[in-house]
Amino acid sequence: MPVPVLRAKAAACLVAPGASAGALWLLDEPTVGLDAAALAALSALIARHRAGGGSVVLSTHQGIALDAAATLSLADFPWRRPADEIGW
């Protein structure tokens, strides 16, 4: 995938939620392809939304700085098998 496509997706990721007045944002992998500056901008955008009373559900494989965020990891849920069978 060419870099300009990644940048376009990153820009859309930052612009689309900012244009939405919805109370709940559902963001799937919004950090993919972002450089450090864009990641900081996304963090600030999310912080502003949360400060205004909004909520965010975000899935990511990359860390993102968010104050007072609750984190859930699939590794925390062994489902129906013991952890040693899963390989955790």
Describe this structure in words.
With 88 residues, the protein is α+β, with helices and mostly antiparallel strands. α1 runs parallel beside α2 (36-51). The radius of gyration is 16 Å and the shape is elongated. The protein has a two-stranded parallel ribbon with strand order 1-2. The chain has helices spanning 3-18, 36-51, 83-86; strands at 24-28, 55-59.
Tag the structure with descriptive keywords.
88 residues, disordered N terminus, alpha+beta, 11% strand, elongated, two-stranded parallel sheet
Question: What can be said about this structure in brief?
Answer:
This protein has three helices and two strands, in the order H-E-H-E-H. It has helices at residues 3-18, 36-51, 83-86, and strands at 24-28, 55-59.
Helix and strand sequence: HEHEH
Alpha-carbon Rg, integer: 16 Å
- Widest beta sheet: strand line-up: 1-2
Q: What is the overall pLDDT average? A: 76
Please give the share of residues in helix. 40-55%
Given as residue ranges, the uncertain stretches (5+ residues, pLDDT < 50) are 1-8
- The best one-word shape is elongated
Distance between the termini: 32 Å
Structural class: alpha+beta
Largest beta-sheet details:
2 strands, parallel
Beta strand count: 2
